[in-house]
Specification:
nucleotide-binding; single chain; alpha+beta; five-stranded antiparallel sheet; seven-stranded mixed sheet; histidine kinase; Beta-Lactamase; HATPase_dom; 4 domains; 41% helix; Sig_transdc_His_kin-like_C
Length: 505
């Protein structure tokens, strides 16, 4: 090999490519594959085929690529062409080769020479295929995460202040923030004045130690509304075991927590009720002879001073019996005559008595959004519930203000925890309100915030027992300085009874 050819061969070897020159056989018709094929340089993609000439190379090209291969290598006239083809080897390997081809020669009846370069691009194509597969897998994974019904956020643990680097669609729906608004920010923007410092401390400790945390804390949406967030924070480590990120799974458990609190409150009040019921029964038995013997003494001859003393004893005994009656009504519901009545009509009748009871300085506004809706209730018990709620509201407003009373029909359905339709009665005041500690004890018998001698603390507990007796539930919502809303939910009666009669008759 001449020195120049050797240098060229070394250059092509270094470039991992090859130069070829194909001289068609002049004895064969133009456009044939017979001829001399010479190579200089590395022939990774065609090694083992180069000695067989252009025909052997064409035969090894994958059938789907063969027509394109012939168009490149058998051009008519002076042309430059390029193409990429798959070549199948006998050992099962498929290699990708790229040809840059030029053709030229004397023209006329003689076929032109074909020369050019070859590159084995198999590694590049395999890398591209792996990259495409990885991209598709990543896109699929992101699509699955984005469609996940749980709020997901990822924070970068390698950057200062652990900024968010990904949030899914449900996170945006839950918080009201767009993805662009939260990228690069620490998730503390969800915190507010009501966020529990203890829960925040648990999160900080988990981040400091690279551990897992499971907390509930109050978070704030973009519009300022709140939700109770059940947050599970878990560390993510890379292949070397280094902490690289944190993934946070969030769920709005506001309704669940409210139901749990209602259940806890109900269990606590029922336990107190059972205890107080037993005590009330025993005290009632002791009061019975006191009232009877006092009445007997008042019928006998005695002086004026004795009459006054006996009257005081009897009044106190009768007052105690009324309190005992309230306790027994709370702790041992049942035995009342109920009927199916129109909720709005019953409420309007009850409001006549309530307006008289709370006094002229209290304005009561009533809004009926329920339309025709029936409930099964005892009229006296229903009136007592409304009277107790309104009296508490009036006391919270120091005897002056406005009480909003509203009636609505809450439809049932598979998406609600209560499948049956319910009639909802709300009583809202603008009074002093209650904090969480007072709200937790509001239904306890004898619990009151009023001064000694101005209340027995049985109003809400009796209302609780009466509502429970009617198959419903009562919920209090309040904040200091923002008033209180009492919500009574009673099962609605719809349609005809099973015997075919109108339930109102």
């Amino acid at each position: 090999m001449p020195a120049s050819a050797a240098l060229m061969d070394r250059a092509f070897q270094s470039a991992r490519m090859a130069f070829f020159d194909f001289a068609p056989d002049p004895e064969q018709p133009p456009g044939g594959l017979a001829g001399a094929l010479r190579w200089i340089g590395t022939r990774f993609g065609v090694r083992g085929l180069e000695e067989g000439g252009l025909r052997a190379l064409a035969d090894a090209v994958v059938a789907e690529d063969r027509a394109g291969f012939l168009d490149v290598f058998l051009p008519a006239g002076d042309v430059s062409r390029a193409g990429e083809f798959r070549i199948a080897h006998g050992d099962g390997r498929i290699v990708f080769v790229h040809f840059d081809v030029c053709a030229g020669g004397p023209g006329g009846d003689r076929a032109p020479h074909v020369f050019g370069t070859l590159h084995d691009v198999s590694d590049l194509r395999r890398f591209e295929a792996l990259l495409n597969d990885a991209m598709r897998e990543r896109e699929m994974l992101l699509a699955v995460i984005d469609a996940c019904p749980i709020s997901i956020a990822v924070a970068d643990a390698r950057r200062p202040d652990t900024p968010l680097i990904y949030v899914n669609r449900i996170f945006q729906t839950l918080t009201g923030y767009d993805r662009a608004e939260v990228m690069g920010r620490n998730c503390r923007f969800l915190h507010g004045p009501g966020t529990d410092d203890v829960a925040v401390g648990v999160l900080h400790e988990a981040i400091r130690t690279g551990s897992r945390a499971d907390v509930r804390l109050l978070n704030y949406r973009k519009d300022g509304s709140t939700f109770l967030n059940h947050l599970v924070l878990a560390p993510i480590h890379d292949e070397t075991g280094t902490l690289s990120a944190y993934i946070g799974l969030q769920a709005d458990v506001t309704d669940e927590a409210r139901r749990e609190e209602i259940d806890r409150q109900r269990q606590r009040v029922e336990a107190l009720g059972r205890m107080m019921g037993g005590v009330a029964h025993e005290i009632n038995n002791l009061l019975q002879p006191v009232t009877l013997m006092t009445e007997e003494l008042m019928l006998r001859p005695h002086g004026a001073a004795d009459t006054a003393c006996l009257r005081t004893i009897l009044d106190c005994a009768l007052s105690a019996r009324r309190i005992i009656g309230d306790l027994l009504a709370f702790s041992r519901p049942g035995g009342r005559e109920t009927e199916v009545v129109d909720a709005a009509a019953l409420l309007r009748d009850a409001l006549v008595l309530v307006r008289k009871a709370v006094g002229p300085a209290i304005v009561i506004r009533f809004e009926d959004r329920a339309g025709p809706a029936d409930i099964r209730a005892d009229r006296t018990a229903f009136t007592q519930v409304l009277l107790n709620l309104a009296s508490n509201a009036a006391a919270a407003m120091a005897g002056e203000g406005t009480i909003e009373v509203a009636l609505a029909l809450v439809p049932g359905g598979p998406s609600r925890s209560e499948p049956r339709p319910q009639v909802r009665l709300t009583v809202t005041d603008t009074g002093c309100g209650m904090d969480a500690a007072l709200l937790e004890r509001a239904f306890e018998p004898f619990f009151t915030t009023k001064p000694v001698g101005q209340g027995t603390g049985l109003g809400l507990s009796v209302a609780f027992g009466l509502v429970k007796e009617m198959g419903g539930e009562i919920i209090l919502e309040s904040m200091p300085g923002r008033g209180t809303t009492a919500t009574v939910l009673l099962p609605a009666v719809q349609g005809k009874l099973e015997d075919g009669h109108d339930p109102r008759r």
